[in-house]
Amino acid sequence: MTATETPAGTPRTPRRADRPGRYTRTHLPGRDGRVAPPPPETRRVLSGLQRKDVLRVVGAAAAGIATTEWLFTQVLPVQGALPFVLISYVFFLGYFVILISFDDDRVTIKDRVAGVVIHSGAIVLLLALAVVVSFALAEGAPAFLRLNFWTQDLSLAGPLDPLTVGGMVHAAVGTLFMITLALAISIPLGVLTAVCLAEFPSPFTRIVRTVTEAMTALPSILCGLFILATYVLMFGLPQSGFAAALAITIMILPIIVRSADVVLRLVPQTLKEASFAMGASHWATIWHVVLPTSRSGLATAIVLGTARGIGETSPIMLVAGYTTYMNWNPFTGPMVSLPYATFTLVQSPEPTQIARGFGAAAVLMVMVFGLFALARVIGGKGAGQLSSRGAARARRASARLAARFGPVGLAAAGGTTAAEREAADVHAINGGPHPQRPTDTPTDKETGR
């Protein structure tokens, strides 16, 4: 009876190990020697940028543009830049897949195509941001490049006056007053509310979280109307920068609460348990563990709220009014902001007023960038990530704490010099007690090390 026949004489399909050129799961050679160990697998490189990848992208882009150009001139009755770009991108992806399929497998093709699509989206967003910023800077350059634009208001500048007269300092000061007052109110309330939602769950906190999530999409005009109906009409208080700050507070408070709540709930539970094990109370754990750990995330929440409130126009238009004069008192009198000044000035038919409006927009962008940079500096890095100065402070604090425990702790913290440690080791080798160890601890000589 052969190896490929059943006892009854019926032929059967050879087993995997019996087929020439096939391997078993254990890759062990058979008795007949036909099964050999498989060749080593080739490592698939899915990350990094190689020269062939660049050539594929360039070739696929050139082929896609050429194909689209031929279709637009010879076949399709379509014109315009946007259809040309979209059709070219579709052809680019198709040609890119074809070029990759010559050398790589299916997994690599999917990875490369996904990477190209993601990078394309990032490039589109960067281009859109660059176009917006460059357009505002180019239109407002004739105004904000002059010194008087940063030092004067519009009290002496009329619509027909040149750009050498007047500036936007009153609008910049008004914006700073409004956003500062709004943040002074919303940051404590927002962080405390987020702490309540994250650390003290209850049916009441679930209702608060639901209301907060719903208020994140509240239209800004409703915030202005609410302050107008209550602060101005009901209580009879004047239109002012403080009223605008209250409207901005209603807008940014839900954003800060929701973002801070998510950040606080990401603090590892083990850190809290370690604090409780050391005997700290719940509030001490929140103050010394939870809030410092989530400081970077809380700064991000404040940045998001600031970005929402600093560029609003409709609440300020309703409750703060418009003025061309400098107003240093945010509690009385009209006060204008940079967004509202931009909205008002660009509606003028005079080129100088339009230039001043775009200059105000440029000033707003500079101010936002400065505030965000300041928030990042205050927020610092994430938990466990220390800067060079922070690491140096941690080492000095560790040395001070170790010095409190005497020579043993001082040596553990590196408080002794290299010469002192070397002399102590030599003394211990010669049979004497080690001055940096407890007297009941065996020395290296006693243990045979």
TrEMBL record:
The keyword Oxidoreductase is assigned to this record: no
Where in this chain does the record put each ABC transmembrane type-1 domain?
172-375
Which residue stretches belong to region Disordered? 1-43, 416-449
Looking up SUPFAM superfamilies in the UniProt record yields: MetI-like
Origin: domain of life:
Bacteria
**UniProt-annotated location(s):** Cell membrane; Membrane
tRNA processing is among the record's keywords: no
Q: What kind of membrane protein is this, topologically?
A: Multi-pass membrane protein
Which InterPro entries does the record match to this protein? MetI-like (IPR000515), MetI-like_sf (IPR035906), Phosphate_transprt_permease (IPR051408)
UniProt keyword annotations, A-Z: Membrane, Transmembrane, Transmembrane helix, Transport
The record lists the membrane-crossing segments as 54-72, 84-102, 114-138, 169-197, 217-237, 243-267, 358-379
The UniProt family comment states: Belongs to the binding-protein-dependent transport system permease family.
Name of the protein = Phosphate ABC transporter permease PstA
